[in-house]
C-alpha cells in the first residue's frame, strides 16, 4: 500500500513566484490497484509522481509504503521498489548502449555493475525470450544501439526494463503520449499485460481518457492540487469518456475558461 499523508508542497518558497501546489494532500493506493490519473494541465499529476519517487521533496507530510515511512529515503533507494516510465522514450533507456547492454543494466538495477561480459553473454537468450513477445523483432537486434530504434520500440523496451527487477510499484508518466496511435495501443496492451502478470500496483498519468477508462481498475481526476474525482470497481466501469469530459468542462467553467 502506498500512502501520501498530509502533503504540503510549495514551489519557489519565499520568492515572488511562490506557489502552493499541495495543501494537505492525502491519497492512498491499495495493493493491486492500477490507478489512471487524469486532470488539467498543471494540476499536480507529475509532481505527485515525483513526490512518490523521491525526485522532489515535500515541505511536510509523510510518504508511506506498506506503513514504512519513506519520506526521507533517497530517490535511488526508493527505485529498488519502484519502476518508472516517462513520456520521453529517451529517458528510460541509454541510447549509446546496445539492446543487450541496456537489458543487462536494467537487470542489475541497484547492484554494482561489475559482471563480466561473458556472464552477460549467457543472459542473451534470456533477454531475447523477454523481448520476443513484444513482436518488434528486437530479439534479433541485440547488438544494435538503442538510440537507433524508433520511439515506440524504445518505450516498449523502457517498460520491459523498468519491470525486470522485482518492483512493487509501476509509475507511468504519460508513457504513450509521444507515440503514434497504433504504437501507443501496443504499448498500452503491453503495460496491461505486465501489470497483470507481475501483479504490480500502478499509477498511470494520461491525457488519453479512453486509456484511463479502459485500463486499470481505478480512475482519479486531479485539479489544482486536489483529487476531485475518484472511482473504482463497478463505479469506474459505469463511467464513459463523455462523463469524464463533462467533469473536465465543469473544472474549466470554474476556472473561467
Ligand atoms: N520544478 C518546478 N518549479 C516550479 N514550479 C513547478 C515545478 N514543477 C512543477 N511546477 C508547477 O506546479 C504545477 C503542477 O505541475 P505538474 O507538472 O505537476 O502538473 P501536471 O498535472 O503534471 O501538468 P501537465 O498535465 O501539464 O503535465 C504547475 O503550475 C507547474 O508550473
From TrEMBL:
Membrane disposition: Peripheral membrane protein
Superkingdom of the source species: Bacteria
Membrane is among the record's keywords: yes
Gene3D superfamilies given in the database record: P-loop containing nucleotide triphosphate hydrolases
MF terms in GO: ATP binding
Ranges for domain ABC transporter: 2-249
Alphabetic keyword roster: ATP-binding, Cell membrane, Membrane, Nucleotide-binding, Transport
Keyword Lyase: no
SUPFAM superfamilies associated with the record: P-loop containing nucleoside triphosphate hydrolases (SSF52540)
Compartment annotation: Cell membrane
Protein name (record): ATP-binding cassette domain-containing protein
Organism whose genome encodes this protein: Blautia stercoris
